[in-house]
Amino acid sequence: MTKALLTIVALFALAAGALADSTSFPGSFRTEEIAANGTTIHVRIGGKGPAVVLLHGFGETGDMWAPLAAELMRDHMVVVPDLRGMGLSAIATDGFTKRNQAEDVAEVMDALQVPQADIVAHDIGNMVAYAFAEAYPDRTTRLIVMDAPVPGVGPWEEILKNPLLWHFRFGGPDMERLVAGRERIYLDRFWNEFAADPSHFAESSRRHYAELYAQPGRMHAGFLQFAAFDQDAIDNRAAVAKGRLQMPVLAVGGDHSFGTTMAHVMRFAADDVHQEVIANSGHWLMEEQPQATIAAIRAFLDGPNPELALKPMRLSASQIEALAKERGGVGTSQLQGVDMIVLSGNPNENGPYAIELRVPAHTRIASHTHRDNRTARVISGLWHFGYGPKAEDAATMELGPGGFYTEPASMAHFAFTANQPAILHITGQGPSDTQYVDAADDPSHQ
Q1: Residue 7: what pLDDT?
Q2: Cross-strand pairs, 272
Q3: Average pLDDT in the 246-271 region?
Q4: Strand, helix or coil at 43?
Q5: Within this chain, do residues 265 and 330 fall inside the same structural domain, yes or no?
Q6: pLDDT score for 19
Q7: Do 255 and 281 contact (CB within 8 A), yes or no?
Q8: CA angle (342 as vertex; 378, 362 as ends), nearest 5
Q9: Which CATH number do you get for residue 37?
Q10: How many domains are there within the chain?
Q11: Nearest Cα to 152, choosing from 51, 240, 270?
């Protein structure tokens, strides 16, 4: 995190601490039940100034935004709806495509006489926010999306293969019967498994949301949000083909969750994408690291931080050859035989970076992890790459020139070269590091 954001974090700490209940809005906020698009949406409204709309996701309601709303109300009109059928909005049994829910948001804004707004979203709220920004680009001044994919955009099909996302296909009458009366058990799974530290999702918040989701029709609405993903993907692919978003976009990920992948996804659909990775956080950014998350959102709404922007740079092959080579650095898994060339940024510091690794033949890299999400492509040679806590040759895939792979944050992986050396290009969001699964494999300890 930059010095500017650290300063903002310190300033907000006192205000955040004063808000004892993270789901309680300041007393100056009012609530309205707004008829919109064939349903009724429960909305919290407070503050004065340019409008900002906050959209929640599954496992929470609009109440998740209470600490952010308390900060933004100083100079914004803050509008916080509960999504269709969820929270305290009217029970709904249809209309859950994200394109239709974007219409819900538009009609809420119309009722409040809000012509334009910054849109801030998390989880399923991202999907509604993207649909809104695509349908109403002139009403979306800036877009902030946090730690969840967007159906049909970028690597959607690959993301669906992650076994942690089995719940995307979990639904229907029998599934609802299984969960009925056990909402807390079901939700605890998400709060625990998608958190960097489950203890950071407070017990008071768990009770609050479990009680809301246990009300009639609420889990049904939650399941229908997921059931609409197939149509959402169709709608979004058509939207991307029609044109890319032009408003500034901030993509925020937890370093133990979506990380830089959030920005990677949005760059398939938007031209002006900035990224921020929140340290020591999983998926539940507002619960796990509220101060840092608020600071990142505030900094972007006040104006993108130039220190975090990717600098324009063009290098020919000969210019790359002339750059200094480093051995044993943070991007090399600390192997002395591997040469690293920093192409842009700095893997030791906050912000995006790109490095080139030159790996000699017959080099083996034991199973290890990095704190940041990294993506890589093989430029030359043959690279044998695999996932898992133990390096096993049979578990690797041989990747030749043009091959691509990812190194998700905190996911153990390993690699080796055989008779050919390999050259790799790797990008990530610093600061990076290397942690070997077995400390005995760490070259710095040998």
Answers
A1: 41
A2: none
A3: 93
A4: strand
A5: no
A6: 39
A7: yes
A8: 45
A9: 3.40.50.1820
A10: 2
A11: 240
